[in-house]
Amino acid sequence: MKKVFCLILALMIMAIMTGCAKEPEEEPAVSPGSVVVGFSQLGAESSWRIANTASMVSAAESYGFALMMENANQKQELQIKSIRSFIASRVDVIVFSPIVETGWDNVLREAKQAGIPVILMDRMIETTDDSLYTAYVGADFYAEGRKAGEYLIKKANALGADHLNIVEISGTIDSTPMRDRQRGFMDVISGDTRFTVIDSISGDFLRSKGEECMTDLLARYGADGIDVIYSHNDSMTLGALDVMEQAGVKPGQDIIVISVDGEKEAVQALKDGRVNCIVQCTPALGGSVMSLIRGLVVNQRTIPRVTHPVEAVFSDFDDLTDPSVEGF
Ligand code: GYE
Questions:
Q1: Distance, CA 199 to ligand 1 centroid (Å)?
Q2: Cβ 177 under 6 angstroms from ligand 1
Q3: How many angstroms separate the Cα of 159 from the Cα of each of 4, 169, 272?
Q4: Would 36-138+283-309 and 141-281 be classified into the same CATH topology?
Q5: What percent of the chain has pLDDT over 90?
Q6: Which tens digit of pLDDT belongs to each residue from 262-320?
Q7: Contacts 24+ apart (CB under 8 A), 218-226
Q8: Which atom of ligand 1 is nearest the CA belonging to 122?
Q9: Domain ranges of the chain
Q10: Is the CB of 237 under 6 A from ligand 1?
Q11: CATH 3.40.50.2300 fits 36-138+283-309, yes or no
């Protein structure tokens, strides 16, 4: 009898304790600023990047986290330096958007030794040691590349085209979006003999380089030699549109233009018929990142390893007056 009583008592105490340990999901369990997030942004190369930085700043603010943010101006050395300074400052978590995929193991080992978790935001790294980061939040760039290829097949079918020459204006060499947008696109179109990729040059995700690339391409092949432009982001696309129009070429009609991102100016160009397809890539990743940080640092929970946002495709096959066709 005594034993049964003790057991019931123990169970009651456990129930009370677990009840107390549970925290409501939505309530911040910390005082404002007591969680410090070190964030290394890679640069300010595009409208996408600027919107992404703004998303991180406003999400950190609404979660009550202190954000130590540094911008690396497109230089990997500066990102490594920032990460080292976050380690020295003993931040609670490090978030960074790696400019390229390789070369991070040493600095991430230092973060691991210091017991500071790392969340990759937007881009991935290539490493043999998966314990060097806790989670990745960002787009599925391979899927984006595939969507671009699938659009092109649909377009070629609709036009009844028997052969199309494609030029690719790629993003920053060896970055995840560059590698995977290319791979996804090629995997979809390469078995189809109607398509030839005649050239691929990098515009580093910059509008100014998009202009330069387009100038080179027109000089090399002439407008008649190019049927399709596949550009890895809107900033480069917008630069290329300017150059085409100055040369008397009608983008969207004379040349099929496929782009990625979905910034306002590009979505407008799609509505105006100067772009044919935009594969959406959202820069609004701040909310997901901060929510993971709360789970990991504040509530000490295991967090999902990979989080991909849901993304759409907008194209000239859609009703572009639909209010969901909107840029950031
Ligand atoms: O598409 C481009 C930016 O990594 C998803 O980087 C990002 C890419 C984005 O500069 O505009």
A1: 21
A2: yes
A3: 80, 23, 20
A4: yes
A5: 90
A6: 999 999 999 999 999 999 999 999 999 999 999 999 999 999 999 999 999 999 999 99
A7: 218/243, 218/244, 218/247, 218/249, 221/165, 221/167, 223/247, 223/248, 223/249, 223/254, 223/255, 225/165, 225/198, 226/165, 226/167, 226/198, 226/255
A8: 4
A9: 36-138+283-309, 141-281
A10: no
A11: yes
Domain 141-281 has CATH 3.40.630.30: no
**pLDDT in the model for residue 3:** 52
pTM above 0.85, yes or no: yes
Indicate the average pLDDT of the chain: 93
How many Å lie between the centroid of ligand 1 and the Cα of residue 150?
Answer: 21
pLDDT at 33: 85
pLDDT at 234 exceeding the cut of 70: yes
18 Cα: distance to centroid of ligand 1 (angstroms): 44
Q: Which atom of ligand 1 is nearest to the CA of 232?
A: 1
| CB of 263 sitting under 6 A from ligand 1 | no
